[in-house]
Amino acid sequence: MTTQPSRELELFPNPQPTRDYTIRIDIPEFTCLCPKTGQPDFATLTLEYIPDLQCVELKSLKLYVWSFRNEGAFHEAVTNEILDDLVKASSPRFMRLSAVFNVRGGIGTTVVAEHRAENWQAPVCVELP
């Protein structure tokens, strides 16, 4: 196999840097390991962000997510680590990562972490009739 997991996130220039718009990415096959038992944990990640000057390139995101497959991590820690890495790489105006972990042992977990750029204000939501 020529492609390997990687923690390197690639970016490309935002094609509309003067506009607030949302990019939503669904990642339904996230896996990591339970740090207590070593058993696999499965989750669907949803990344939503408003880019500033850079956007996250999808192939690099796929390889980045793959890099967690054999690592032990608590749900809360891995969700925040991924968000921190994405924010550090891309400096978005806003970013939210939702991680919905599959039920195991009768317990399901959802972790939602957010970042807002210091001077960014959310636009007013438009309600259409």
Radius of gyration: 16 Å
Label the structural class: alpha+beta
Taking strands numbered 1, 2, ... along the chain, how are they ordered across the largest sheet?
A: 2-3-5-6
Helix content: 10-25%
The topology string of helices and strands comes to: EEEEHHEE
Biggest pleated-sheet summary? 4 strands, antiparallel
What is the residue-averaged pLDDT?
A: 96
Low-confidence stretches: none
Strand % is: 35-45%
* Number of helical segments with 4 or more residues: 2
Number of strands: 6
Shape: globular
Q: What distance lies between the first and last C-alpha atoms, to the nearest angstrom?
A: 52 Å
Task: Outline the structure in words.
Helix content is about 20%, strand content about 40%. The chain has two helices and six strands. The longest helix is centred in the middle third of the chain and has 16 residues. The radius of gyration is 16 Å and the shape is globular. It starts with 10 loop residues before the first strand and ends in a 13-residue tail after the last strand. About 15% of the residues are buried.
In short:
By secondary structure, this protein is an alpha+beta fold. The chain is built from 2 helices and 6 strands, in the order E-E-E-E-H-H-E-E. The longest helix is centred in the middle third of the chain and has 16 residues, at 75-90.
